[in-house]
Each structure stands twice: as structure tokens, then as C-alpha cells.
Amino acid sequence: QVQLVESGGGLVEAGGSLRLSCAASGSIGSINTMGWYRQAPGNQRELVAGITKGGSTNYADSAKDRFTISRDNTLYLQMSSLKPEDTAVYYCNARSIFHTYWGQGTQVTVSS
User: Fold this and answer.
1) For 65-78, how does the pLDDT look when each residue is reduced to its tens digit (9 = 90+)?
2) What are phi and psi of 32, to 5 degrees?
3) Are 13 and 109 in contact (CB under 8 A)?
4) What's 41's DSSP letter?
């Protein structure tokens, strides 16, 4: 089992920055890929950025050039040039061969 705990969300003005963190515990050696997803009210949960065990990254078009994902024993999402449309609950995700794990989510609100 893997437990994921996000932190770092909050209220920020448009153009500002936030860094989200996701602390993983438990069977972290079983984790292959990790990622950040977000879900705004009325929308489906969507991938924001992902990173493999080897460090390869991928980003949603909306996140490219503004967000940076990284990981050590913690998963991070550095977000800059934030826009009101980035407002959502952000979820940490971890995948092993057989399981998918989710954190509880952290709210990010960007005011215009």
C-alpha cells in the first residue's frame, strides 16, 4: 500500500506561483509513475503532468511552459503564471504494476 498526502494549495492572484507537494509513504519502492491531476467543478479529472521513475515527464498542453513536475521521495508541481482557469482540486497520483493510488486533493484557487 502507498499513502499520498498533498500540501501547498491555496489562494493566489493571477500571474502568481504555487508549489504543490505530495509526500508518499508505505511501499514507495513499488511506484513507477507519478502524476498530478486536477478537477474543476463540473469537469472531469484531467492529467496535468506526469513523471516516470526514470525522470521522463509529460505535460498537458495547458501546463506546458508554466508548470514543472519533479520528484525525489516527494512529488512536486511548481506552478507559475497561474490563471483563473487553473482553479481546481489538484490530486497526486501514483501507479505501481498492479495498483493506482490517489491523494485526498488540495484546492488551488486563482483569483483574477
Assistant:
1) 999 999 988 999 99
2) -100, -75
3) no
4) T
Backbone φ, ψ for residue 18 (5° rounding): -145, 150
Q: Quick: pLDDT tens for 34-87.
A: 999 999 999 999 999 999 999 999 999 999 999 999 998 899 999 999 999 999
Write the burial class of residue 92 (CB in 10 Å: 0-12 exposed, 13-18 middle, 19+ buried): buried
Cell 486536477, residue located: 38
Give the residue carrying C-alpha cell 474543476.
Answer: 40
Q: Residue 21: which of 95, 85, 76, 96 has the closest Cα?
A: 76
Compute φ and ψ for 61, nearest 5 degrees: -55, -35
